[in-house]
Here is the input.
Amino acid sequence: MNHKVVLQNGDSLPAIGQGTWYLGENPARLSQEIEGIRKGVAAGQYLIDTAEMYGDGDAERMAGRAIAPLVREKLYLVSKVLPSHAGGRALEAALDGSLKRLGTDYLDLYLYHWRGSYPLSETVRRLEEMKKKGKIRAWGVSNFDTDDMEELWRIPEGRNCQVNQVLYHTGSRGIEFDLLPWMREHHVALMSYCPLAQAGSLRRGLFDNAVLKRIAETHGVPVTEILLAWNIRDGHTVAIPRSSKSAHTLSNGHADTVVLTEEELQAIDRAYPAPRRKVALDMQ
Here is the structure.
């Protein structure tokens, strides 16, 4: 893997990391999932994304077991705080819980999972406190639309936000209308969850689409790699596909070597056009 995404704070991330949504919840698959995480890291997918919400902490526990024998400083660990924990003493308690489950004493990036009832200024203040304590190196947000980001930018320390993690894939391009241009203008990196359209109806026939299948055949790769190559095509996006199998994890990482031609990108645009109006964020 060669492509890197550089954040405002100078952190250099792999364009394709590893997601953990729904992992760690089935004991029968645990060893397989742990092996997949480790092989992915060895292949250059050293960013691991998780959350306290995933399996009520089971994903963090699985990730913690997976990284236990690895060199912590060579990893980039991301977790998320629930809206109900995003202020007061609850935020630090939630963070401490995540750190314990992951078996580490700091996170590289801590995300506010989605908007809740705490004032945004309160959440920002607590996140900045966690930075000062050394429990997180940086913070960002998730599932924030354009108006949320504009509100965040009106908070003095809100501009320390490094990334916005939202659902984005070939069949769900709503963020391209106004959110993504706003993020590019303000140097907020995109972290793309569900880049392989794991989310139900939003798959929109992606894996059976004749255009995508033809492009995949041209490159000699599965459609999943075309979807990921498309996802990270701008150089400012980190995709975090989830996989429970080593072979799939390694295939995901290989997508970083696939370079789509302008003609191929145009063909994908015709098959899955970008929106021409504002649409609500997809979140599932």
